[in-house]
User: Fold Dynein axonemal assembly factor 4 from Gasterosteus aculeatus aculeatus.
Amino acid sequence: MPVLVTDYLWTQTDSAVWLTVPLKGTKVSNVDILSTDEYLKVHYPPYLFEAFLFEPVDDDRSTAKVGNGVAVFSMPKRTNKVWEHLMTTTNDKEKKEVRERSLLKYQEKLSAQSISKAKKQHADKKYALERMMKLEKEKKDGIQKIKEKEREKSTAELTAWKLRQKQRAEQEDQLKDHSQGQSRDGLQSMTEKQENACSHGASCKRDLKSDSEAKSKSKKKDLPAPRLVGNIQVTFTPRLFLTALRETRVIEEEEWLKQQAEARRTGNADVEELEDLKREERNPDWLKDKGDKCFMTGDHLGAVNAYSLAIRLNRKIPALYSNRSACHLKLKNLHKAIADSSQALDLLIPPVCANAAARTRAHVRRGSAFCQLQLYAEGLHDYQAALKIDPDNEALQADTQRIREIIQGTAASH
Assistant:
């Protein structure tokens, strides 16, 4: 049997009623509210509050605020008048009918809201699809216009080239006719000379030779002109990331690559202080691998020492700070874990796909340290930042929801 709540408070004006129901320390998520224009129910096991209202209210304009251990309801009246009581006095049969009628109305209201929400989502999807199709069409139309311009340009160039070829062929035909006329005149003069004087035989041979040379030259001129040649130079932009060009941020990616290259070249340790180290111990990458192995074997203090020495050699590698933060978490050095994670995030800029996983780990480690210090709001902020980078991570989703529940439970208890 539920425990009926009787220590409620209510007040009214001619146009509205305000009702305050105590929640007796229960969590907000455990409160079940059902309201219509004539019935109100607040159920939080094992407590139950029911109100069969004296007059109908406007349920569509009614509001409810749950928090700080109370539920406050604001209900506008349908008729402007002062009520004698908050609840009407009815028998059990009438109360049962009111409950059933209110439950049916509430279910219809939820169904209508669900249908309205589905229609809105469908309309949003339809609008997004139409917008995307419109953008694709505009893009295709733009490409088609460029193609048409290039086609017109190529057609004009081809027409001009054909005209030049035709003019060149006409000039060669005129030159050929002129050379043939000269050849005929030469032959006629040679024949006259042979008939008149045989002494000019040698001269005739030379004329015949020159005539044959002229003919061979004219034949060469009949050949078509050689085709025009040219070189087309094709260059491709180098792509160091696999992201599509329309989706990537080229400037940020190039800046990240430049930053990583600079970090590999930079060494800011005092060589005199580290001259006793071996050659491989002066390599930050070697020290990082050593720290990773120590961490895997459970030697967290040894891993911290390895990462710290690597940081002394090069303070611009974000993985060193992030990994040392994980070690500090294991050793319960929570403030140091927060400082190292923050330093790693400062170095993981600009945010690009290449460092997304590293940024996620750094946010999770700093958020975990905040939560262990009972700074749940700061921890939730970091987990939400990590979830924004990797929204499909189920473990992150579960941890973020757990932190929300802790915050809500803390607020409800106050």
Notes: Residues 92-196 form the longest helix (105 residues). The chain is about 60% helix and 10% strand. The chain has three domains: 3-89, 155-222, 250-413. Residues 250-413 form a domain with the Serine Threonine Protein Phosphatase 5, Tetratricopeptide repeat fold (CATH 1.25.40.10).
